[in-house]
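Q: I have two molecules that I believe assemble together. Could you output structure tokens for the complex as a whole instead of separate predictions?
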Amino acid sequence: MKKLTASFVLLLLIMTVLAGCNKGDSPASSNGNGKGENVVNIGFSGPLSGAAALYGKRTLNGVEMAVKEINDAGGFEVKGKKYTLNLVSLDDKYLPNETGANAKRLVQEYDTPIIFTPHSGGVLALQVFNEQEKFIIGAYTSEPAVTESGNSLTVRIPPNYEGYIEPFTSYAMEHSGKKMAALPTSSQYGKDWTEAILPYWEKQGGKVVYKSSIDFAKETDFFTIVTNALKKDPDVLFIGGASEPTAKVAKQARELGFKGGFIIMDQAKLDQMKPISGSYETLEGSIGVLPLIDSDEEAVPAFVKNYQKQYKEDPSSEVGLNYIAMHAFVEAMKAAGSVDDAQAIREHMQDGLANLAPEQKIYDIPSIDEHGGFASTIVVGAVEGGKVVPIR
Amino acid sequence: MDILIQQLFNGLTIGSVYSLVALGLTLVYGILHIPNFAHGALYMLGGYITLSMMTLYGVNYWLAMFVSIIAVGLLGVLLERFVFRLLRDAPPLHDKIAAIGILLFLEAFAQFVWGADFHTMNSPYGQVVQVMGLTFTLQRLLIIVAAIVVMVLLYLFLKKTYTGSTIIAMSQNREGASLVGININKVAMLTFMISGGLAAIASSLASPINLVFPGMGHLVILKAFVIIILGGMGSIPGAIVGGYILGFSESLGATYVSNDYKDIIAFILLVVILTVKPTGLFAKGER
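A: Yes, here they are, computed for all two components at once.
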């Protein structure tokens, strides 16, 4: 028995360690047009292996596509000098401590003025030292805390999720009803989201009839929890987490006879849920983030075509937002007249957004707020009649 | 009342999957005398092979499952022949390290071959059936029935056939079995084959209700360890009963106590059972 307990502990220990030690750590850099003198290195640290690898890859694709476009156009000009970009990407396996180590390395070896990272934990880790080491964090996370802390060199790329709460609530109440059962993911992000939406829902006259959370890393089957939630006869299910398992929850709710609508928190994307749920009919009456391919912005069709050609898949919003952010950073460098003064680049982000070319404007981002968050015009998407329709 | 029956059904479904995984684990424990950490990876591979057979070659679900059972079973044999047999005289720690190495290798391998993304397995049994206020899908019914069939077959094999009893003999006493003329190497390979096959059956049955992805083994393997501790290490009835106990405690605990605390309930149960019977429910004496 003793032996067994010891090996059990050993297993746990090793699994934890493991989560973070595979893959070599040589940085992959793309588009290094030789080691010419006028090269600006752009850093990226995100999950490129492990459970979140797909998500990390997509965020990287967005940045990479923008970098390619800029280099293919012959680079960009700052104060009469031509520069090209070189993207250096490192794997952090979704671990904030790795993000920190990667960033140190990126700054010391490659002198990167900007480092992209697509998770809130990584962003918080970088905020410990980014002001001293003078680099901008391209933060791809909708967690409002990363900008509210007042870090002067953070740019939050996606809209703050608090912006979704009002449109989601009013749509769901109008189309489905006032009784909500909450089954979000059990991550910190899921908890914060839930804490934000539930009070608002109740303030608007809604009722929360069931509240729990799902740990997608531990649950093999969602029937049990969904059965319990449906017993309370809700009109709306609040779900969310990674797209694919979230879609599975929605599907099982339908199997158990749920007829109402879904509120889908912004981590899950309708277009990525569709292959799992089979069709949009399963998700009828859902409200969530508008998939990029269903957006009615003018620049979108050309962008989608271009992306499909290069990466053989539909672009998701993580691709699109990182793409537009990279372009905005370059425009900001031009406006600031410097490629390495992080402070100046950050101060000229507003000009950067204003100077975006029309074909780059796949999202409408009119301004950056005082804390460094992109103030996008929030457009949400609802599933109506088997199709996603933009709701303004 | 409806909810109770529905949740009993849900518990039965998930308990069946747990039992099948735990059975494979407990069988190998009888041979190796260490928990096979790589069992979850075999489960994951079983899911991927069934899925690939169905999507790439368009073969039917049952045939795909059969191929998967054979493939994962053979992989089990290879592991025994080329890893664990060579370590037979080494200190037990080496087996553990090897098992963990295999786990890592297989997971990285799956990600390399199939990518990191989630896949869905569409079984032909997705229909929703409603009987007397109960809702289930044919697939769930299939999980329960198939698990019981597999358990009965396994039982008959172990108790009624000569080959089966050599496995039992070896798990009871390796030297003794060897002395009466049982070929230890053959039996060890056979056990690994059955264990891998069981993992493939479990994942092929369970994948349609969840997703196929490189980390899917983690969902069940820790629970399977709990089950075989609870049921008694190396005990076959223990693995079956333990699996259902865990399945029911999760579904009923989530309903009548709290969903957030259902894992605590399972572990309290473990503590209580081990306090009363420190070797587990069905243990056959100290190893």
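A: One point stands out. Residues 2-32 of chain B form the longest helix (31 residues).
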